[in-house]
Amino acid sequence: VGCKKMLDQPVQGAYEADKFFNSDVNANLAVNDAYPALLFTDGGSNAIWVLGDVASDDAVKGGLPGDQADFDNVDNFNILPSNSAVEAVWRRYYDGIFKCNVALSGVPDVNTMVSDSVKKSVTGQAKFLRAYYYFLLTSCYGNIPLHLKVETVEETQQPAAPQADVYAQIEADLTDASGKLPLAWDAANNGRPTKGAALALLAKVYLFEQKWQQASSTAQSVRDLNIYSLTNLFTDNFNQNKKLNTEAVFSVWHQTASSQSFLGNNLNQWFAPRGSLNGYGFFNPTQSLVDNFEKTTGGVVDPRLDYTIARFGHPYYDVDYDSSWSTTGYMSKKQIQPLSEIPATIKGDGNLNYEAIRFSDVLLIQAEALNEQGLGAQALAPLNMVRKRARESYLYDNTLPDFGTVPDGLLPDVVVTDQGQLRDIIRKERRSELALEFHRYFDVIRYGSAYANSALSDKPAFNYDQDKFFPIPQSERDTNKKL
Amino acid sequence: QNTERMPVTGVITGPDNAPLAGATVTVKGTTIATSSNASGVYTIRANSSDILVFTFVGYERLERAVGNNTILNISLAAAGNTNLDQVVVVGYTSQRKRDITGAVSVINNKDVANIPVGGVDQILQGKAAGVSVTQSTGAPGGPIAMRIRGVGTINNNDPLYIIDGIPTKDGINEISPNDIESISVLKDAASAAIYGARASNGVIIITTRKGKSGRPRVNINSYVGVQKPADLIKMANTQQYITAYNNAAIADSATNKRTLIPTGMIDTLPDVNWLKEVLKPALITNSQIAVSGGNETSTYIVSANYFKQDGLIMNSGFERVNLRTALTTKISKIFSMGTNVNFSYGNTRQVGSSGDGFGAGNPGPSVVRYALFRTPATPVYNSNGDYVDLPTHPEWFGDGLNPVGLAANTDRNFYTYSLLGDVYVEAAILKNLKLKTDFGMNFINTDYKQFFPTWGVDRHINSPNSLAQSTAKDFNYNWTNTLTYNTTFSEKHNLTVLLGTEAIQDRINQMSASRTNYTDQSSQFQYLDNGLGRITNGGNQDNWALFSLFGRVNYDYDGRYFATFNARRDGSSRLAEDNRYGNFFSGSVAWRIDKEKFMDNQDIFSLLKLRAGVGQNGNQEISNHAYVSVIGADAFYPFNGTATQGYSITQKGNPNVKWETSTQTDIGLDMGFLKNRLNVTVDYFVKNTSNMLIPYPTPPSSGGAGNPYVNAGKVQNQGVEVEASYNTDFGKDWHMQLSGNVAFLHNKVVSLADGQPIAAGRIDNNIFATLTAQGHPIGAFYLLQTDGIFQNDLDVFTHAYQGQNIKPGDVKFKDISGSEGKPDGVIDDNDRTFVGNPIPKVTYGFTANFQYKAFDLSIFFQGVSGNKIYNQVLTDIEGFYRPFNITERMYSNAWHGEGTSNEFPRLSWEGATNNKRPSTRFLEDGSYLRLKNVQLGYNFKGSWMGKISLSSMRVYVSAQNLFTITKYTGLDPEMYISDNGAGDGVKAVGIDWGTYPAARTFSFGINANF
């Protein structure tokens, strides 16, 4: 007996998994852990910016030649399954899904130690996040394994499910989440998804599935919540002091100089110029993206160009722009903060949120979905809301030249209702509005092979059928025999 | 016949003519005995027909007939492996070497004396067949890989150490090599099975020095040496680098616009040899003083030792202080007791030196790697005397760190305080029955402290600055009880029975804390209180326990037939209740053929002993709670800007995990020739590990928590070991002793969980150099195979497709396979294949000792053969993918037109993606033969010594690592595991990220006895 007792040495400071979910507090702790996969605390391990934008016609890798060579390989479509960006995105978001499944495993109906209200909240959050991660994953990789619970060793082997099944699961999770999530959280919980976020993501998923009617009606239901609107200043979406603006539907939060753990936005360093600004110089926008921004016949350019892209002759926040910074001549301004906010000494500890879903995205989803249903006239309203906000920067941004009046012919309301013409206009608008927010490549692919081949015509190795999705990573192939 | 015993007297000396105090003299066949005094003088009563037996631990037993002598001066030879009467500690008891039935190697203090190394494990290198000892790197105080009979498992392969009865997996560095009396290595299962659950990797039993009865003896032992870097890699100089850069820029100009480095600039640029800048001569010193003595009932020894080894790289080093006391006393006829206490303090200073700073627990970016990378065209210091950080033109001269600045700004310390000791009581209850109870404790406190200063002129390295500290307390106790009974019946039957129990419990407590933002970086303010920024802290505890019952029977008949049987039952807290206990059995037999009648008329063999044994051992070196999934504190997320804790499954468990078991069969032959002047031992063994505990490689899509252990997988090691020694005297003044050992080893993974291979040894993001797979050795290299260099366009055109932009001068790879399992005309990951492994096929050591009058010379060679090393850092300094420096041979030999090279590709960045693919291009033969130690000593003699109570004095000069014969082009073929591979264990050894090279050491020492 004595030796039996001696041999009982229970784990200290942690729970055996089946004994953890014994209180509301613990259930909440579990769902909290489903969030960190969202963070951009390291520019290399959350490489969605590489797959979303560097692969597209909007940006190149930048930085020093040879540095992060695999990101260049994505740009050039010389993509092996062991490519580090391809591996990183897979690993990161599937880990997020695992954390969601752990949280969900602890709040079944039979568990009476967690209150119903907390079960509802935890379920809503975990399902939203799981859907968000699966949506990114299926956008990147197409047919992928579905993991929906805490698995035994044997169950970790899962075949790749057809994309339709993945979408069905995402729809189910988001539908459930939208019924369980609140319209808004109390202040301390800002950053958790809301009902609006679930509906907005659902609208986007429908759009990707080309379920046009559901996409437009779900986008409308987001609008009908009457809590979102476009900010007067476009740049409020990229401003550390405006994290809680009316346009932020779902944000990935970051915090500079966090009191515990490192929680800063590391892209501030990855995307900043090398040299005295202490950046790495990655993520250089292309001429093609610059050219996408409309210009008036008088030469006045869409103000979003200079909000999005740094270029010669225009200030780069608090310093002058230096053309030698970039291989394309341009640098990204999104995810970047001025030195007055984040000094060079703590460059990698940025304070900007990443706006995963903005209300302008919802409006453009609705416009596109309506137009695809042949309802071009109805599509104009949400489209023109986005354009109006952009041109009216001249009414709100006192740093613009001739501030106070909108220059003649700048971003006029669209009146075209021809489906084909309007489709091109909406796509162009979407590219300008959401540029360098890591969405472009998925749009390019979604628009189909003709569009993609034309957009990526300067990448000779690009082959639509082969590159529509990135390869499932080597590490998964090596370990998952059911693939 | 003269039956009256008369006094016989004489002086007993050792081979160095120094008197031996405390040597035992007995009249054979009687109980008459005495011992020599401090001057080595003995007096005993004997008659002319008596035979005197002279014995002294560590020396050859000697018998001399008295005859008509009244004075018999005796010189005892030092014991070597040849000493068959030597008593060997074999696990809870000791045995005469000649009676041992298992495979046991013995190393005596004398074999390893005065080798200038810090650790007990290091001195075993090359000394015993089948015991492979490799420094992870040459960094002082760094870990040592000790492998007995190969790598038996993908888990922990460290042997179990028993230090004076105290079992420990990690206490080996707490003691000083100078305190060692002898070391027994239990290699086969038959010997080690008495240690059961923790013995599958073999057992190393260390016996420390004890006092001997007699007048107090004072021993002083000291050396001082200087270490120098040796065999550095030749790198390109500034002129060569710029030429190479510009040639490549011109060659690549069509696809890749790079501006040329203006050649006029060369005159303004420095030419720095970075390896020489970071590797500087350093001191090594050791001082030991020991006082010992005793009387008939008690003995004592007190010793103090100070060892200090500065590293070749600034801010690295190791120092240790040891204080030790051992007492034994006979309380009464029945009871005796003893104690042995060792206190040590150690300080290891580390700089990152063998990785790329990737991975947890890594000391950070490597000084050595940057010293290789950094182009010679950037100065060490700027005009202000600050370390130059980013080169003026990083696009030309790279953006790696300044290695000298990096070393200077590294302040990483581990302070270890340890107490290792035991108390035992032995009761001779009956004449043949002994009870022993032994209570031991091992307490190790490790404090870590590292300050990360902000430095760099333009890059703000370590910004904000920070201080990290942690403390770990590992407390372990063991309580062992044994009952030993031995008897002889019918004269020829000898029987020993041992029964025992053992309880071991271990507790580790840890605390850690850090703060950032120190306004004053000076050491005076490097305390947690002074950080103004982020505050973090943590703490945890973990426990485990082991309870065991064991027994052994030794039987021999007439000194001719021997049999040993062991049984042990272990219970471990690390397994779920149903699987907690494991039973381990072993048996072995031996036959002294030379004692048979039919051998009487031969004079070839003076000893011929055949041994055979089979047995099982366990391995429980997995995490403490592998049987259950664990939910604990994980990551933070800033809800509304406030860091908020999350909990999740951090480690996946498997309720079914059970013991990993190794079954070993050993057949051995001990042979003595020429009256045992020549001794040869040969062993053949097969060691099968089954139910290997494997962290099941779950797909990344199932989440990132630690993989669960499953029992699946078999590994086989088989090998042959030979040890030989030869002693001879020629002439009056010459003595020679030669000894050598060699082991041949073959390692193979027989099966794995679901046949699933395990990739390890990350060499780039998601690229791994090794694959542990069925049918191949553990951690075998799995790479593309090169097939020379493309010489012309036709060559490129006709060869399998390797990707875009392949040009003449690029590396050609073999089309081994494809997605359909056969060559498919495309080079991709399917063409990787097994191309060798890091486990040496042969390991060997050779020692020659010569004595001429007062001089002695010892020469010790050691080497390995048949292993491969993946020279990862070569991918950086010959891969030519970023503006890093290149080797001089790459500069001179790079392909520059058809027929110019079939080994080194063209200098081209556009070609680098292809040319630096992980392949056999960077895989090299790791064989080496190293002159590990040469030592020349002189023993003083003369009457003047007696006047100052000096009984002996030896001075010596010694050289360590004087030369190395190897084809390996890296800094040091004697490398085992890099900082990057540490987490992968034996699955990722032999990957050289630029290793901390072993130093060439010249030292001078003195050893005096008073």
Low-confidence stretches of chain A: none
Which architecture of one domain in chain A would the CATH scheme give at its second level?
Alpha Horseshoe
CATH fold node name of one domain in chain A: Serine Threonine Protein Phosphatase 5, Tetratricopeptide repeat
Continuous helix count of chain A? 20
Q: Mind describing the biggest β-sheet of chain B?
A: 22 strands, antiparallel, barrel
Rg from alpha-carbon coordinates of chain A: 23 Å
Shape label of chain B: globular
CATH architecture of one domain in chain B: Beta Complex
Order of SSEs of chain A: HEHHEHHHEEHHHEHEHHEEEHHHHHHHH
Seen as an oligomer or otherwise, the chain set is heterodimer
Counting helices, strands and paired strands, the structural category of chain A is: mainly alpha
Going by CATH, what is the homologous superfamily of one domain in chain B? TonB-dependent receptor, plug domain
* Individual helix count of chain B: 12
Widest sheet of chain A: strand order?
2-6
The total count of strands of chain B amounts to 51
Name the poorly predicted regions of chain B: none
Mean pLDDT, all residues of chain B: 89
CATH topology of one domain in chain B: Ferric Hydroxamate Uptake Protein, Chain A, domain 1
Measured as a percent range, the helix fraction of chain B is: under 10%
pLDDT averaged residue by residue of chain A:
95
Give the class of chain B from helix and strand content and strand pairing.
Answer: mainly beta
